[in-house]
Design goal:
Layout (H helix, E strand, L loop, with lengths): L2 H22 L4 E2 L20 E3 L9 E9 L11 E6 L16 H4 L3 E5 L5 E7 L13 E6 L4 E4 L4 E2 L7 H4 L11 E2 L2 E3 L2 E5 L2 E2 L10
Parallel strand pairs: 1-8, 2-6, 3-12, 3-13, 9-10
Antiparallel strand pairs: 3-6, 4-5, 4-7, 7-8, 11-12
């Protein structure tokens, strides 16, 4: 009989934890069409923070530091707990795989990474500058996908690089860029790294965002 109060307490504790978890789990919603946006969820058991170093960073080539701030819809307050996922080609313009990939890594390759913003909304990726496709059909670029704490996820315009001869006018000066963020980076050399800064505003100019 002495065990009954303890068992009741244990049951209530478990029920409370379960209820709390259910309340905090967002309803994930893809905004618009996006093939491969589900890759934003593929970080597994990795403990995300505001900085990530992609697997190619130690290889020879121009080393990049991609950084910036993600803002809430007002464009002023930093957005916390936002996950930003990026992937890109290697220096040869190929999305490389090693044969062990699962999910979207089979298409995106292993040069990819994730960050999760802190209270200041800042993010940083360390990687190499990607190469152009062998077909030269596109300028060198990096793909970003974003996941908000409310469960909304969607693609963003690519990162490009100023001076790339393959850039089109609509890539250099896009009209109403998604997340209010033109993608062409003007790189600056700082302590051996090429630094590019790009900010995002959640949901800005993203069709279907408020529906």
């Amino acid at each position: 009989m002495k065990r009954r109060p303890f068992l009741i307490f244990l049951f209530l504790l478990i029920a409370s934890c379960s209820s709390s978890q259910n309340e905090t789990m967002p309803d994930y919603k893809l905004i618009g069409n996006c093939e491969g946006c589900e890759a934003v969820f593929e970080y597994g058991d990795k403990n995300l923070n505001e900085v990530d170093t992609l697997p190619d960073f130690s290889n020879p080539g121009p080393k990049l530091k991609l950084t910036g701030t993600i803002y809430k819809q007002d464009g002023k307050k930093p957005a916390e707990n936002v996950i930003l996922y990026i992937y890109h080609t290697n220096r040869d313009g190929i999305y490389p795989t090693n044969g062990s990939e699962i999910g979207w890594a089979k298409r995106h390759g292993y040069i990819r990474g994730w960050i999760k913003t802190a209270k200041d909304g800042k993010y940083t990726f360390y990687t190499l500058k990607p190469g152009v496709y062998p077909s030269r059909s596109q300028p060198a670029h990096i793909h970003p996908i974003i996941l908000e704490p409310n469960g909304k996820y969607y693609w963003l315009g690519s990162y490009f690089f100023e001076g790339d001869s393959l850039l089109r006018n609509d890539q250099i000066s896009p009209i109403n860029p998604r997340a209010d963020s033109p993608g062409v980076l003007k790189l600056k050399k700082e302590e051996g790294l090429w630094v590019g800064t790009r900010d995002f505003v959640l949901g800005k100019n993203v069709p279907g965002y408020n529906y």
